[in-house]
Amino acid sequence: MTDWADGIETRNYGIKCVIDARILSDLVRTIVCLAMVAGALLFYLWVHSQMISIGYESQKLSTEEESLRRTQKNLDLEEENLKRPDRIDMIARTQLGMIPLSPSQLIPPQTQDLNESLPDKLAMAVSESTGLKKSAAKKLGNYTN
What we know:
Elements: E1 2-3, E2 8-9, H1 21-82, H2 85-94, H3 118-130, H4 132-140
Antiparallel strand pairs: 1-2
């Protein structure tokens, strides 16, 4: 380097490249702080984008739900229309050729007494015929009626 005012050339032969620990620690602290701020900003951006995508998905699902409710309402109306007795009667008469029953064709329902039911008698007959009642009484003690 030359000092042009004096015309003297000065040399920096005494300057050495030495790493200062204090300056290096300040640099590391600054870099760590900036990295933490950048990490916090990235996390905030990720959370924000997740909230936006969940909002869009929620809106899509609510419109789909509304569409399904309308479809369900239409199907309920169609079911009620198909169940109308006058419509069923008309189809039975015209397409199937059915006619109403005459009083002589009616068969009254037969009721059966609950005490004399057939399945109960069959169950008791099977257990008596195989000897299950006696073997069960031996195993369980004397609990027969």
